[in-house]
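Slide 14.
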Amino acid sequence: MKKKIVFGSGGAIVALCGLAFTLVATAGVPEPVDTSKRGTQEYYTSDVLTQDLPEILTNLRGTGGKYIQIIATVEYRIGPELEPSEISGLFSARSAKLKDGFMMLLSEKTMSDVESREQKEILKEEVKSLIQKIVFPDKRGMVEAILFRDFKVQ
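Slide 15: predicted structure.
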């Protein structure tokens, strides 16, 4: 009877060690993310995040000194590879490229390019595309919308 108890407890120890090894070996190992769906709506989280953009101020082309000033916020969603805490770093690390891109885009605009509601919607799409290319070129995030908080032409 003693042999059965020793054998039984020894088997249990081996089984527990195997279980412990399996748990330790797989602990902290994230599940692989299927990146083949990047760029599709279902890839991104349902939470819409926001980031204020740097103020945009530049002269309009062919206006003799008139300028455009835009203060805006971007709405975006992120994929499973990114944590919300990482995003502000993505925007701040690319702030110089964003400002440059905004300046290049807007300095080519004329007064007629920014007067009507339709033209402003086109401008929003251009800014949206620009941010997507600069901040999320790998499509780990998706820009949803641009919200103008202030829009002046003087």
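Speaker note: The chain has a mean pLDDT of 83.
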